[in-house]
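Troubleshooting log. The previous run stalled partway through. Resubmitting the same two chains, unchanged.
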Amino acid sequence: MPSHANSLALLRAALKGDRVALARTISAIENEGPGSTEVLDTCFASTGRAFRVGITGPPGAGKSTLVARLAREYRTRGETVAIVAVDPTSPFTGGALLGDRVRMGELAGDSGVFIRSMATRGSMGGLAVHTAQVCDVLDAAGFSRILIETVGVGQSELEVAQTADTTAVVLVPESGDAVQAMKAGLMEIGDLFVVNKADREGSERAVMAIRSALELRAPRDAWDVPVLLTEASQGTGVPELAGRIEEHLEFLSRHGELRRRRRERLEQRLHELLRGQLWQEFHERLPATAWQGAVQSLLERRATPHQAAERLIAMAAKA
Amino acid sequence: MPSHANSLALLRAALKGDRVALARTISAIENEGPGSTEVLDTCFASTGRAFRVGITGPPGAGKSTLVARLAREYRTRGETVAIVAVDPTSPFTGGALLGDRVRMGELAGDSGVFIRSMATRGSMGGLAVHTAQVCDVLDAAGFSRILIETVGVGQSELEVAQTADTTAVVLVPESGDAVQAMKAGLMEIGDLFVVNKADREGSERAVMAIRSALELRAPRDAWDVPVLLTEASQGTGVPELAGRIEEHLEFLSRHGELRRRRRERLEQRLHELLRGQLWQEFHERLPATAWQGAVQSLLERRATPHQAAERLIAMAAKA
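Second attempt completed without errors. Output:
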């Protein structure tokens, strides 16, 4: 483990373009290693320049391929790109690393692209906070676009998607009737919708279903949510997708909406950070055996969860 | 809103079999209404008798139909059944209520069945805690089996599934290669696997793929995870599913695993409850303008999230 001074030296190297140092800095943040607070504090002042683009959708929608193609498209537009893939794959499959290797093949050797997978590791919440922190480091490192790829099903994953400035929801023709997407809460968070694998049957029907579902959505602003067709494996539709993402970012900036969204996200992040910190401080004040004793009292129904919680809070207050 | 005394009177009626009172009691718990702590405290002592069965899987797997059929099967076995459907459908679709009505058609008029949908309502975490609390009320009300139906994708939803004693993961032939289920973390949480809509092409292949994926799973205990075929719309395979669920519950009881699991779940629940309570107490101690001031300082990069959190904690400590 690097010491505090080491981690700041590592960060300096990372900010100068050393990709190995960048990867190690991010690992230290993920592991909440020594010096990670200082690293984050240093980075934060330089954040806010990158646009953060969320790419989310059900497993199997072809997000990874689409993200790789989108990164390539952004490169031709002169942007530098960091990809943060939040992968809930369980540790035993090694899926995150595998995904990286597949992608690396497509984007290898381009120093204007940086790819990072984050495993969820079963951490209780806090995933959105960690993702935002990693994005801060990448933002400070000067990448102009950060693509955050998440499996967009489930509350925590939706929270991750919402650390982004704009969010594209990726579906496939088979998820056609849009009911599934509605169930997963995806219809509400998308600023853009993409029907990927558009060569498959039913893609036009899927577009129509998504449009109908969007009509049910509470109106928010003057942005006309586009529904695009892509075939990521061939790159078809990707330049248009990039174009529409950029349009939305411009739209957000022009209408003060970017600032409003970023404020909301910083607020959410502060909330999550505080919850974590309050828990940690509390837990450190507890006598060693108090926690297990409380759990035991629940198991034997000598106390209710509420009573056990009250007792532990009282104990910590006295300590 | 009912007062504390009212809510306890309501609970007493609920525990005597008044279903309207039961529904209203659960609403009060969900809304954290006045008296809900007392209601939960009263219920907790009578919990631990019902078996809680999680039914989870991707949207479109046919979970609702399967759960309705399973409830009917349990009724023929002489059990009483409560169904808790945790539905992340957004408020505007009214999906939760709709699902209830569809199910009610199948099970209407049977006082041995109670159905309750819970919407996630975008609450930040805490969903698993709420679900466990609602199950406590149903447990105290004397239902012998509680079926917890969740869309099993995403971290929060997996946490909900894990409030159950045993969990069945429902897939369809199309989710065949099991890779999607692995990505969603489902392969790790299932005690039983079900390939529903087994009349569709590929169901045998799906069973084999799930079996292969299970071989990659870290061995846990001597339970041989079954992979079953069902056709919920016809009821095919449902009696066998119920039989295997019961076998697993017996297995858990016999090997001390039930107690271990319940302990772990109570521990998790206490943790979540405390986190919520610590936040609430903290937030109440903060001066009125402190929170917005902190968010503003973040937006203007005058403070980092870490610094803002430290300052707020210091303010609350002084208050």
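Takeaways: Residues 139 and 256 of chain B are 21 Å apart (CA to CA). Residues 89-99 of chain B have pLDDT under 50 and may be disordered.
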